[in-house]
Predict the structure of pullulanase.
Amino acid sequence: MKSASLKRFTALLSMIALVIGGLFSFHSVQSFAETAAGGKTKVTIHYQAAKDNTKDWNLWVFPEGGEGKAYPFTGEDKFGKVAEIELSGAYKKVGFIVRTDSWEKDGGDRFIDIAAGEGEVWVKAGDGNTYTEPPDGEYRDLPSYENIDVKVHYFRYDDQYEGWNLWTWPENAEGKSVPFTDEDDFGKVANIQMKNLKDVHKIGLIVRKSFPGNEWADKEFGDRYVTNFKEDGSAEIWIAQGQERIYYDKDLVDRAPTIVRASIDGFNEITFETNFPLDVKNHGLSLSGGADIKEVVPFDSKAGEFTNKVKVITARNLDLTKVYKIAKDDFGEAVVQTGKVVRTPEFDQQFFYSGNDLGNTYSKKETSFRLWAPTASEARLVKYKTWHGENGTELPMKKSERGTWVTALKGNQEGLIYTYKVKIGDQWNEAVDPYARAVTVNGNKGTVIDLDKTDPRHFRKRMKALTPEDAIIYELHVRDLSMHPKSGIEHKGKFLGVAEEKTRGPKGVKTGLDHIKDLGVTHVQLLPVFDYNSVDETKLDIPQFNWGYDPKNYNAPEGSYSTDPYMPAVRIREMKQMVNTLHHNNLRVIMDVVYNHMFSAGESNFQKLVPGYYFRYNEDGTLANGTGVGNDTASERKMMRKFIVDSVSYWAKEYNLDGFRFDLMGIHDVETMNEVRKALNKIDPSMIVLGEGWDLNTPIDPAAKANQKNAGKMPGIAHFNDNIRDGLKGSVFNDTDKGFVNGKPSTGDTIKEGVKAGIDYPSTMASYKDPQQVITYVEAHDNHTLWDKLQLTNPDSSIEARKKMHELASSIILTSQGVTFLHAGQEFMRTKGGDHNSYQSPDSVNQLDWQRRADFGKEVNYMKGLIRLRKSHPAFRMRTAQDIRRHLSFLPAPKNTVAYELKGHANKDRAKDLVVVYNANVDAQTISLPAAGPWKVLVNGENAGNKSLGVLLGNKISVPALSAVVLEGK
């Protein structure tokens, strides 16, 4: 036997005899990113800053589910800045944020998919995409090669090389099989040679197993690429069984037996995964911590006697608060982490706590605390003297029912600053109380608050009930309303700015609250106003903007909107004052809530307190990413569902809110949303619940997703109707795609179905049961404004023509069935200068332009007239699908024209017939009316309202180009 073979044979015998041991170190207790001890992950990030950039950008990099760390850019290429970063551990996905030290961000959380231990991406300033190849046709600074000569060393732990070979190919060309023809002290050796190549920068390879008649009997991983060559096109690489990475240095390859994973995945089940195949019958494992092994079985029933993933079944249920260790001779011992067990129905059944006293409960005589942390072996309340204090006083908490921990402090604790600490396994985690209702600056600690002291005068009386179909919702960002230099508003960017009255702008036009009130809408929907992560509240002298869809503390207001973020009570008092003032002006308030994800899973209080529970995971243990920001919360779990319901109920009662808009509602489950509706009904049944019912790729039963397809299972919950949105102006995902108002033919049927509030959509699209379940809109904070979209799709049209298209779209929205939704500034044809994703763009892009409001006075008056019309005619606000089918009928109309009649609507106050016509043609169209006049003209393409603009006597009408007409009959 050759010496090399003898070494591998000895290693194999040791492997079979020993297997499973060593210590696997997670980056944090909650890391489920399949980290391999001793492995490395390399990421290369290219960043092209803006041409006028003056900021010092760097990177915040984090393995999925792990802690983050700042890294600088270390070089430059023709694309821009470059950072090459090597992380300890092997990961399938790595996240990063382009940011400054003050946490200004260019984009949000982005992720790099890792293949063969490496990942490379390109990012451009202001572009939300993450590119896996250089955009704009620019190629990385890699030379091309005419001839390739690669020496491949391949090591198998099992020493079974028979049938294994390489499938390899030059970039963008056909592949071929290459055998292993030699061996050395590492393993088998193959030589890949390619000649007379053109524009080749890399070669691909797959390690596969072939048998006669079946060349692809098995393979290890997928496509891998060799990219690191010498000038002459030669390279030498090392690859090992069970490791996806390609190594250019033999010494970096870890060929020692290693535990990849050791976690409690059931109450009496531990999952072990190793980089060596395990002899299941002769495992030789021992478990310490007060548990005994009953049996060891393959994880996969199809696995044979040797496998690298097994289930260890214990004799009795494991205590999740204890530390267990696995041990084996020559391998040391490994701490067993808490794994999938926290995501089992049995866990919920055992630990669900139904009480209403989570968080702190304040009185002048005593403040009690209750924390839910069922996997903690110890818990402590930590008291701090200041918001920036680092060494707090730790007080032990007592273990109580259903996985909760309690303590109480005598006396008046108002103003106490606190956090919780929990011991998970052998690690201590500190976190803000998820139920904290008041927080310090930047939300880094919770505080005890006397909420009664934060109430404005005359605050508790709720507004008169309003039927959802009567609502006209106006979506607004707190900062946008006041930041324009000509807004006339003193408290710029603040809650109090929204509450200012009698403010005036250019030409004396009403601004701010007075403008919204004058417009005639019924509800103001505020983009997130809870405490979010992306704005540094200690540096408010520096302009910072964010929409706020990165939650940090769900039950406390955002400090940057207050006049003093250092004083916990101020943000609460001022938000309540804003709500109260809006109410006194007959405007209801809807809060945009973002329970579907957090700013970061690993850094969130949820994950620190109960690792692995609150978030949703894929089968491979990686975080689910239906949200696109790297973490989906698991609303189907009882304590996450309870948190959402508790939180919404708290905001509704404490802040006297009138509704909630659920961001990415399709991530949640039907039962949770129905529980939300049920809880709010007990407070005020007229509160509106609406959300983005998109069908998102998250791992729960499709029948359980709270999306449009399942709308019929969620009565009283409304969904944004993207079908009429895109039908009107074109797809939001294609800048130049057109819709009905801007020249796309054959879209009339889409508009007709939208006018009917989608009640007859196919079940594959939506299952709306009544019009209150449908939000009818054409633009929102996301994507291009309607005006910017029209400029993209119709660049050669005149401004006047685009104004007509815009007014036509708004006319359709306000004369359709369902719940009307307007984006702030839509009434004066808001522009963001073509910025389709302005979530962190400066005020110059996002602020409401009050000069434009003054210049577009005629257009604003037209919108006000449409609103008066809708509010005056119940026929536009029918309550049931049955009423719509009974009273709305479409009339014959020319191409690109929609006409319909609202006949005999059952209403004691107004039962007159209405005819509505939308003409999307660039010339006038003649429509035959269902009867001869007289018909009152309420909308004529120039003006709109609830009073007659003239009388039509005949049975035909000429509808001007790009306009809507509304007629009222006898």
Confidence is low (pLDDT under 50) at residues 1-38, 906-910. The CA atoms of residues 92 and 114 lie 5 Å apart.
